[in-house]
Amino acid sequence: MRAFTGLRGPRAPRASSAWPLLLVCLIAGTPWSLADSDPPDSAFTNLVGEEMMAKYSNLSLEIHSISLTDKSSMLVEKNITLEKPSNMELTCQFTTSGDLNSINITWRKGDELLENNNYLINASGNTLYTQYTFTIINSKQMGSYSCFFEEEKEQKGTFNIKVPELHGKHKPLITYVGDSTVLVCKCEHCFPTNWTWYRSNGSVQVPVDVHMNDKYVISGKHANETRLKIMHLSEEDGGSYWCHAIFQLGESEEHIELVVLSFLVPLKPFLAIIAEVILLVAFILLCEMYTQKKKKHPEEGKEFEQIEQLKSDDSNGIENNAPRHRKIESGNQ
Asked: Is the pTM of this model over 0.70?
């Protein structure tokens, strides 16, 4: 592996700055050494630097890498979870069939171009390596760090550094009026420094009033979880709740939806079914009544026709018998 550029360190003090002090020493007749050329506050500066180095040397080292080729067609990303200050070592490996000397390598944090004296570039065979080493001590240093290999086609690898995500109940939590419920938020393999609960009031998040002991109780069995117990639920308690975790390097939150139902709500489907059954039975009865009524009308018509026929027959019989009686009477005479 051969180095293209090395990591540049801080520059040494210029020798010209020692000439005035040397002249004063010669006039005063006092011995002079190069160490005396440091400014009076250099001892304090060195002490602070040593303390900072000792402080950062105790931080954990996070090593992450990404591999790219000149044939890569998709964005290559890697998500890194970080909850406390750490030393970071990000490495990008780029394999190409072209000329390594014609490839321009840069690093960016978001859209900000990083200085090239903060990272190393090495080569081995047909592979380029670039390594960016730095220390994250606050939330402003979190974000996306990208390495760029600019040839005929630009290739990019991105490290997304963020605080841990929280895990709650993704589906709505359903409960009933008068009951109690517990909302739970957890952080896997991480330990927030503080937990806070909020409730959505329109577009604004309002802190849960923990002083209402008869309504809210916040607890947690472990440092990586928090529980919000809500008692004596009413329909107004339904809505969105947010658990908020604070880390040394930032903040994270999770959303939980609470639905509070009245006791009539479970009965509504049964009431609807009963109503449908009643309507169906009523409709069937009406159909039966209509059918029976329709059957009765033809029978009554037939009976009426029969009666009329009988009446007509009787009247015809009487008329036929009348001449006979007359003939008999005339014969007797």
From this structure: no
